[in-house]
Amino acid sequence: MPDPAGEEADMLLLASTEPSSLCYVETADIDGETNLKFRQALVVTHHELTSPKKMASFQGTVTCEEPNSRMHHFVGTLEWNSRKYPLDIGNLLLRGCKIRNTDTCYGLVIYAGLDTKIMKNCGKIHLKRTKLDLLMNRLVILIFMSLVVASLVLTLGFALMVKDFQGKHHYLFALHTWTAAMESFLIFWGFLILLSVMVPMAMFIIAEFIYLGNSFFINWDINMYYEPLDMPAKARSTSLNDQLGQVQYIFSDKTGTLTQNIMTFKKCCINGCIYDSDDEHGILRKRNPYAWNQFADGKLLFYNKELEYLVRGQQDAMVQEFWRLLAICHTVMVQEKDHQLLYQAASPDEEALVTAARNFGYVFLSRTQDTITLVELGEERVYQVLAMMDFNSVRKRMSVLVRNPEGSICLYTKGADTVILERLQKKGAVEETTEEVLASFAEQTLRTLCLAYKEVEEEEYKQWEPKHLEATLLLQNRAQALHQVYNKMEQNLQLLGATAIEDKLQDGVPETIKCLKKGNIKMWVLTGDKPETAVNIGFACKLLSQNMLILEDKDINRLLENYCRNESEQQRAFKVMTHQNMALIINGEFLDQLLLSLRKEPRALVQNAVVDEVPQEVGLSRMDFLQARRISQMWRTIGSSLTQSPSVTSKIQESPEVQRERAFVELASRCQAVICCRVTPKQKALVVALVKKYQQVVTLAIGDGANDVNMIKTADIGVGLAGQEGMQAVQNSDYVLAQFCYLQRLLLVHGRWSYMRVCKFLRYFFYKTVASMMAQIWFSMFSGFTAQPLYEGWFLALFNLLYSTLPVLYMGLFEQDLTAEKSLKMPELYMAGQKDELFNYSVFLQAIFHGALTSFINFYVPVLLSSDISKFGASSDYQSLGVLVALSGLLSITLEVILIIKYWTLLCVVSILLSLGSYVIMTSLTQSLWLYKISPKTFPFLFADYNVITQPANLLVIVLNVAVNTLPVLALRMILRAVKQRPKKKGKEKEEAEEEPSEEAEVGTTAKVLRRGIPTRRSSYAFSHREGYADLITQGTILRRSPGDISGDTILESPNPSEEDLPSSRKESIFSPRKISILARMKRQHRGQGSQEEVGTDAGSQTGKKPAPQRRDAQKPPASDGSATSPAVTSLQASSSDDQAFHSAPSEYTLASQSERLDVRTASLRTLPWKDPASPRPSLLQVPAKKHSHSSS
Length: 1193
Prior knowledge:
- The protein is α/β, with parallel strands linked by helices.
- The chain contains 42 helices and 31 strands.
- Strands 12, 13, 16, 17, 18, 19, 20, 21, 22, 30 and 31 form an eleven-stranded mixed beta sheet that branches.
- The chain is elongated and about 130 Å long.
């Protein structure tokens, strides 16, 4: 399979042309991640299958699990040559991934067709129906059943009357041979046909035109047009527009949907001084400020003139060490392409750091198994790598021990501030200032790393090296032993500074989420990424806030267990607790255990997958103990404040799985945000289905990749973003947008308008139908229940076609209660659609009652006044009565539509005039003499309207009918509006008075009990999906050999290390939730500035007054001798370190996930291609400076 082929089946990787049979893949269509990952063949197949002939003769048997949807799990064995070899997901190439930077790979098909994992994650196509559409269907059925009942009642009246009539007028029945029963039967069908005009079949036809028109308005909206991609919004479904105004839950992907997946070096702090970019608007970049550096990358957006002056002046040692650390301490691989250096990193943030160092003159040029080559301001220097202490989720740091060309040994370390600050040699003014800078960066939602270094004495290294070598040779507990050895070296560091990286969000994402929250729309993020990354993005886009209580898997499990025990006290506490400002962070394994009732796979498989993934360990760590204590304090605090409330009755008939699901959805629905990490495409769909099952709400899913297709198809509304991950999400969506921020306008403007228009249309249509046609029922009481029609047949035929259609159509297409700008400024109005306020059974019954009252007045007023108006010469015959009722009904419903339309335009006036004009024209035709002569039975109402209108008494009756129908209703509406507005104003004043202190008080009381005491900074190491591939570098596994070392008939290029030496793939990820905002803590400390006891009791708080961070051009004030030690540092010293948690047991706050293997493809780095003397054309990357090197015995 050549590069860049896409997988069409799930294959077992047997061998590849890469070193150690590595294969680099891109899994954007599976989990949305765009960085490369690697898969590796077994050692035995790598060594044995070394040629195409051997590959063709391969005879092996694979025994594996049945096809399933778990993307990150695979268990199987390969039986070959009478031996068995274990297989896992690291040996599998999944369908949907793309092979990159790999010439050729060979594999064995395991699953194909519908059995592949990606196909198992694909959902079925669901017919999507809106809530209003379903309600319309039920109402039409209800109307039809009502008409059947009305026909039966009227038939019963006919049966009773016909006996009396037959006794008095027996001679009239001589011509009829039918019995009374047969007459009644025919009369029943006559009434049913006569009243069938009340079944609003025309409503469905007009509704389709309204849906289609509103879809065109979405397509034509210039404010949702994205010019860079020439991409307008597009409504691919025309029947879901009104449901856009009723969305309560949004399920969003992260990568490519909320973010651009672009890492930008934003700021840095060196020795306590902040260096921001001087080129925010890109003016300097046009002049290329890095022209002095031939290796500079023109794409870097960061530039600071003062920092450049310090770097090129080579006077500040701290600045030099800062950039040297960024150029040395990493696992980035480099290759040359078109005489340019190309960096390939496991995570984009690490590439951004190395690129920044490159632009400031510290260029990472190449690496070998034990050396790393830099170009420092034009001078090439080779550092010998003595040890590479890799990053993992427990260490949260990476260190490189090197010997520089001068012979001295230095340790360079970068990592999260929580682990770097507690390993510093001293904590002075610079360190305190750096902590404030880190807090400032965190407030700006930037991802930070602390940088530190130390010079290692030769004697210290000689004592440390044997221990390191001994730990690397262990066969058991190697990782723990290495961790201890590394930790001994990484002490007494000197702080250099900090970096700040921005994961660029799409334009307007925080503002959009904030506005949607005001509209009572809850946002869930479902991503295949790791928890730390998702949480960082949650803070960046304002989905999470610093004062939120963040609950994770273990917390949720405890809460659900207490809830399901059917203890009234615990359940009341559960409900009270959920009123706090909370967020949930859960992962795919938790969902595997939770969604058992929704999955179609065997329960045992799900449990086995979890057991295989997370080995259970005995014992509790210190962090577990602290968490358990905090949870118990939380129960006691909340339980003491409970008032007597009725206990929640548990549903005995429900299974435990269903009860657990219901409790989880109830908990999640009370949270401000929910983030699901490391979830598969099928799990995304199951989460959406879970909320739909227990909440009965309208859901919207938005994504841009193939891994979002199942979620998009499962949600009530699917929105596809036209991003960089293909068009599969777009092709399976109902609406297409180019940017996430356009979702705000789609819902709050077009969605609310569509819902309001359709609701008004439905209410008015039911009203006008009943108001005009129910007079047939009243007339039947005066016609002996004989099913004789009151109106002219042409009036019945043209009523819904011409006479009343255009105003209804205008209202359904163009009605606006507010402009688009005001709709965006007042998102609270969106809640009317969520509550079904504009159209429901109550509104329907009101419309029916209003219509019935109108028809009653229109019919009985002429009947009661017929004897009086006849005195003035007006005719009171059957046809005149029909015309009077018809004209009164038409004018009454026309005046009603005039009153309820709020958006008046010339088109509105034209539609009303055309409707009334069509009645005049068509009535003149159907009642004309020449048509009467042609067919008297078809056109029996000869000049009926003319005779009625020409008589003033009839005109007065029509005016009276319209006035009686309109004025009381108008007065009632004004009274109700005035009554509703009064309590709202008083309520708003009370809310404004209580709103300000409520949040601060809530944070102050609740957070004291629930705070975990972890700093709020977020490390940019969150973007590393696994521990690094330092082992592959130091062993030479990932490095190519020179072409001369490759034999002619072999496929594979280097021996494979034992599987024990490969980096561990099952590390648990620990991240620290945030509890209280930094600003709130600083305000609170400022009030009690002099009290050190308060600082001791609240170890996680900040100091009230510290030396403010300053830029380089401002002189930094010296630290006061009497200043207290930083509380943040005190907190770090008092709390248990990550090392203790590592050696005891997994943390209680573990979000275990199947981490993807790191993924770098490199060219030959031992023999640099641009330094080959035989090369016919010299490379532009040739370094003219003097070369210094040092070799150690």
